Amino acid sequence: MQENRSSGVGVLDKAAHILDCLEAGPASLSQLVEATGLARPTAHRLAVALTHHRLVARDIQGRFMLGPRLGELSSAAGEDRLIAASGPVLNNLRNVTGESSQVFRRQGDWRVCVASAERPIGLRDTIPVGTQLSMKAGSAAQILTAWEEQARLVESIHNARFSATMLAAVRRRGWAQSVGERERGTASVSAPVRSPAGKVIAAISISGPIERLTRQPGRLHAEVVCEAAAALTEALRS
Question: Which of 58, 76, 94 is where one domain is finished?
């Protein structure tokens, strides 16, 4: 049963529900109605009002998405908790696996590297902080797509290198792997990072050459990547 998060101020709770839904990425009005259970006129009125205050914006397809004001407020509040908590976890993951490690978060139609720990020596698969990568390929993209609502999941797998069947397997086992999916010669393993409410908000990954990670990288590293994801999830609850 979902926790009752009502504040007793109905219009504020409904607006917050819309923002919660947009955390996963852009949504059409129909998708907002489906996700929130609000009446279509109510969802439209609140989304437009939130747009006026720059808490919500529109993408080039006219879909609603989180607006720039939220980023400004986040900066004003201090360092992003996910980024702050990621450093020690990524460093440990890199040290245990010997591979570069990253945290990705979805922003619109892209996944963005928000934290990383690189291998100090040898051949590296460098993904600098701030790098935007496709949501259509790679184990982190699989993680950030697998737990989306059905309508958005169907939309997300269009022209993707992974299928709905593959994402069902990701949800079942709790991790994803890719071999040459995003970039030829590169493999990766990823697992979901969850918010205190249990929502998937990021993916933690390791990546490197297939020569080191093999064509079954999950067999080598899934357990430790999942442990890192659990550690980062727990850090966000603290």
Answer: 76
Note whether 36 and 21 are within 8 A (CB). yes
Place of tokens 């442990």: 227
pLDDT tens for 118-155 read 887 655 557 888 899 999 999 999 999 999 888 888 88
Q: How much is the pTM?
A: 0.70
Determine the 3-state secondary structure of 23 from DSSP. Answer: coil
The number of beta carbons lying within 10 Å of the beta carbon of residue 172 is: 8
Distance, CA of 212 to CA of 207 (rounded, Å): 10
Beta bridge partners of 110: 107, 134
Residues 6+ apart with CB under 8 A from 209: 123, 125, 185, 186, 187
DSSP code, position 108: T
Instruction: Tell me if 143 sits within 8 A of 193, measured CB to CB.
Output: no
**Range of the structural domain that residue 48 is part of:** 10-76
Domain for residue 4, yes or no? no
Residues 58 and 91 in one domain: no
Please report whether residue 5 resides in a domain.
Answer: no
Residues 203 and 137 in one domain: yes
H/E element, 112: strand 110-117
